[in-house]
Amino acid sequence: MNKMGLEEYKGVYVFAQQVDNKLSSIAFELLGKGKDLAKDLDTDVTAVLIGSDVKGLADSLAEYGADKVIVVDDPELKEYRTEPYAHALSEVINNFKPDIMLVGATAIGRDLGPRVSARVATGLTADCTVLEIGDFPLVPRPGVEQKHNQLLMTRPAFGGNTIATIACPDNRPQMATVRPGVMQKIDPIKGAKAEIIEFNPGFTPNNKYVEILEVVKSVKDTADIMDAKILVSGGRGVGSKENFALLQELADVLGGTVSCSRAVVENGWLPVDLQVGQTGKTVRLQIYFAIGISGAIQHVAGMEDSDLIVAINKDEDAPIFDVADYGLVGDLNKIVPELTKALKEEMANK
Amino acid sequence: MKIVVCVKQVPDTKGGVKFNADGTLDRSAMLAIMNPDDKAGLEAALRLKDEYGAEVTVVTMGLPKAEEVLREAFAMGADKGILVTDRVLGGADTWATSTTLAGAIRNLDYDLIITGRQAIDGDTAQVGPQISEHLDLPVISYAQNIKIDGDSVVVERQYEDRYHVLKAKMPCLVTALSELNEPRYMTPGGIFDAFEKEVTVWGRADLKDVDDANLGLKGSPTKIAKASDKVKKGAGEKVNLDAQESVAYLIGKFKEKHII
Q1: Model-level pTM?
Q2: Superfamily of domain covering B2-214
């Protein structure tokens, strides 16, 4: 691999994902983290905005911390497709030479990231939950050059059972996809402006361009669980689609949102949008209620970083109790309505 | 039509995770299985074989023991199996793995390459798209179904709030989700075949157009700085009371924590 000229690579870049010309939350989350990293490296943060007719989104990227915005605007980029987006981002990297390139670990980012990393011949660390600047190796080793100011990327593996911290010492940019919902956005600075750089590498369709025959948008009447502060989550133990009404009532009292485990989606009781866990979503909440959820590791990996976890399950050996702060062993059909009623009374007394 | 399917042998993390007394992962106690997304990819290939006629070649990279997943693939109906194994390939990250597999696939004729979306031991979802880049092929990741239309494949691909129906000209690469299908069981005849069939074994020398600098641990741009089995969050308090008492207990805790 090309190990020459690493010092030419400078700055923290984030891929500012947009869908239908609306910026995704992950764009702001990456800017928030990017700003921290840039501060440690004494450099600035650049958002890379790729799409068609997207220039108008640059100001809100500035408000969330971007010092510069590189805009790649082309009609070929209207809907996300792997090849024109990979071409756009690879050419930005080749021309501007970022030290760090962050991409959201979203359905789009997990498609785009690997393709781009292979094209620009660098490493990519998937689905990171912690990013920091430090030394590699972490402690000096005889005969090994210890490099400073490296991006240390931490990620869970083995279904969340192990944690690894990864560095990319000899290649640039240091690339990571970052799990949505983990990094903090900054409070927007109203009126902030960024330097806008327009860049178009040219788009000529080739064998790698796929044709979009149809775009089917699923009508979304469900709340986004990633935006919730409190989730009332149900599993197979809830027993039926209808019985989720009990959970909805509890959620309503607390201003929370109902979510679920994979088994519930498989049974067709709730849509996949509401699934928490490995192939669903990762959440970090103030309170997570796990109701009738046994606690498969994929599910636990998706919710264990919540501040407070309450588990209700009739099986006192259910693994969910191993991560719960408070565990109630018993029949959810009795406990949940009782809890809803008690909370209502408490709220009324305030 | 010729289809190449990439599979990986992985420890089974689903349900059967075992821990040592000190809380670390006990890998030796866990079963080695064919990675679920890869198995769905193999099933998708076998269905295309059933419907249109195809030769299905399964490629795996790993220790010699990984031959087991090729035998399983034979028993499901795969035609050929290639094991890529060599000491110099060990310790590969996704870049070095994808350059290795691409080097193996360059020796083969193919119209379609199918990989699983991701392996349950690494969860990166990177190797499939990276292979497509090395081979200069179009990629469609996260396929929900796969159909053939003349010289193209038509695939449904889910994004956050929508799906795209995408058409790519072959040769191309598709990554499969385990939700794609229910893999078939091995058949008795298939199991018999599985032990009759020859597994082809390739080493470093058999890889085509690959630089040593891109293989194994040395050719991996990402390096592990530190790895640890996750410190499990200690269990909190657990009560086994009647419903009213349980609720009173929890309300008490919520008040203590100033949640309500």
Answers
A1: 0.81
A2: HUPs (3.40.50.620)
